[in-house]
Amino acid sequence: MRLRWMFSCLAWLALSAYAAEPVSRLANHPAIKLVLDGKPADLLDQAALASMPRASVKAAAPGEQPSTWQGVALEDIVGRTCVASGDALVGRALSRFVRVTAADGQQVVFSAAELHPDFGHAQVILADSRDGKPLAQDAPFRLIVPGDKRADRWLSFVTTVEVVDASTP
User: Fold this and answer.
1) What is the annotated signal peptide range for this record (predicted)?
2) Residue 19, CA atoms < 13 Å, CB-side half-sphere
């Protein structure tokens, strides 16, 4: 019994250390992993995001005062993966979706068409500042979806943006 308890404690400590490693590493060097099926991941750090076109929205999550959020439109980030756009966003390309993951494992999904200006044109930004001030170092990137009636897709500490092909052969 005592041996089983010791083994459980050691396993818990090892798993805790392993699980905490990516978050602490990302907190020291904030970056977003950009993934497209079948291609190597691209890392977008704060400098790379700062070089992209900037977007700004005024929005408030329920229970918060409205703030001005600044960052990069999710559509522009996804565009770096060579996802079809314009007239090419037809057929199979319409079956793609964008999955955004936070450090705590929470995920939200947007269809490629939902983000595209010729279809839904949802305004979604990956914010890195609020009211002109950088977001906290422990959560440097936040997903803001001002058009949603609920703030359930507003993720804190975004770590990954993936473009996934959901079409069937």
Assistant:
1) 1-19
2) 9
DSSP-assigned letter for residue 95: G
pLDDT at 2: 38
Spell out the domain ranges in the chain.
30-165
H runs (alpha helix) in the chain: 2-28, 46-50, 74-79, 112-115
User: What is the pairing mode between strands 31-36 and 158-165?
Assistant: parallel
Q: How far is CA 147 from CA 34, 125, 152, 154, in A?
A: 24, 11, 12, 11
How do residues 87-106 score in pLDDT, each as one tens digit?
Answer: 566 677 778 899 999 999 99
Q: Using CB atoms within 10 A of its CB, is residue 77 exposed (0-12), middle (13-18) or buried (19+)?
A: buried
Give the architecture (CATH level 2) of 30-165: Alpha-Beta Complex (3.90)
CA distance 100 to 109: 6
